[in-house]
Automatic annotation (TrEMBL):
Belongs to the archaeal-type GTP cyclohydrolase family. It comes from the Archaea. It is an enzyme of class 3 (hydrolase). Pfam families: GCH_III. NCBIfam families: PRK02240.1. It catalyses: GTP + 3 H2O = 2-amino-5-formylamino-6-(5-phospho-D-ribosylamino)pyrimidin-4(3H)-one + 2 phosphate + 2 H(+). This is GTP cyclohydrolase III. Catalyzes the formation of 2-amino-5-formylamino-6-ribofuranosylamino-4(3H)-pyrimidinone ribonucleotide monophosphate and inorganic phosphate from GTP. Also has an independent pyrophosphate phosphohydrolase activity. One of its GO terms (molecular function) is GTP cyclohydrolase IIa activity. Keywords: GTP-binding, Hydrolase, Nucleotide-binding. Its EC number is 3.5.4.29.
């Protein structure tokens, strides 16, 4: 059985901090959030994990390959560099959706996101890597077909943004509800989804759903590995095969 390890990173008591003693300048909050994401991405990435920025005050990481000590060291490093701290909840499951549900519940049990007493919680257990023949992480790298020709070079930038966001919203809801997957926008016209071990038909369904829902054509490269980094690189190579061959689903 393969297990995805998902870590929910939540900034402790961030809401009150943003308005104490008075509302802080938005430009400073935006700078803090993007730097914190960049640092967390690098710290987790050094161990082969991926972090998705989601709402910035809550970030979701795929942390197969990181144990509790690795998580604690990252919390310490962030605490030393920033005026805020991070709590981590860790969940593992064959279903990425369930892993994040469990990770969230652990943090909620430890206290509210706006509880001044709750700081640097590290809750949950990490998973041992399964034998090499069982890759734990499955990633699907989705990309809009010819986004540059269809949208970026044709429409104004805001209209393109609306189209891309609508496709993202359609895909994230479908993968979550139908296949227990968690899809994250990563920039440009790209969405990376952490998924269970799905069949080709599931990807064909998802692509058909987005086409029917918002009239946008996607392709997807799928990859597996013992870490997110391994799975993600395999998915990128599979996506390149889609580009070369004009296909919609590769890597399975
Ligand atoms: N995060 C991330 N962004 C990417 C990646 N590849 C492309 N992008 C983004 O996607 C944008 C569009 O690039 P492409 O997807 O290569 O271009 P396209 O016009 O859709 O062409 P095709 O993908 O060949 O259909 C780029 O400007 C980047 O912002 C990737 O691997 N990761």
């Amino acid at each position: 059985m393969t297990n995805t390890q998902v870590t929910l990173a939540q900034i402790d008591n961030y809401g009150p901090w943003t308005v104490t003693p008075n509302p802080r300048k938005e430009v400073d909050l935006q700078t803090l959030q993007s730097r914190l994401y960049a640092d967390l991405s690098q710290l987790v990435g050094m161990h082969g994990g991926y972090v998705f920025f989601t709402r910035f005050d809550n970030m979701v990481a795929i942390t197969n390959g990181l144990d509790l000590e690795d998580h604690a060291r990252i919390q310490e490093s962030i605490g030393n560099r920033y005026p805020v701290t991070l709590s981590f909840g860790i969940g593992t499951s064959t279903s990425p959706r369930d892993a994040l549900v469990d990770a969230t519940a652990l943090l909620q049990e430890a206290g509210s996101a706006q509880d001044a007493e709750r700081a640097e919680v590290l809750a949950g257990q990490t998973t041992e890597p399964t034998p090499a023949e069982d890759d734990d992480v499955h990633l699907a790298h989705f990309d809009v077909n010819d986004a540059t020709g269809e949208y970026t070079d044709e429409l104004d930038a805001y209209s393109t943004f609306i189209h891309i966001e609508q496709a993202y919203a359609s895909l994230m809801r479908y993968l979550h509800d139908a296949h227990d997957g968690l899809a994250f926008f990563v920039g440009g016209d790209n969405v990376i989804a952490v998924v269970p071990d799905l069949e080709r038909a599931a990807y064909e369904d998802a692509i058909r759903h987005v086409r029917e829902d918002v009239d946008m054509d996607l392709k997807v490269g799928v990859g597996s590995g013992v870490t997110a980094q391994d799975a993600g690189m395999a998915a990128k190579h599979a996506l390149e095969i889609c580009r070369e061959d004009g296909t919609h689903v590769e890597g399975l």
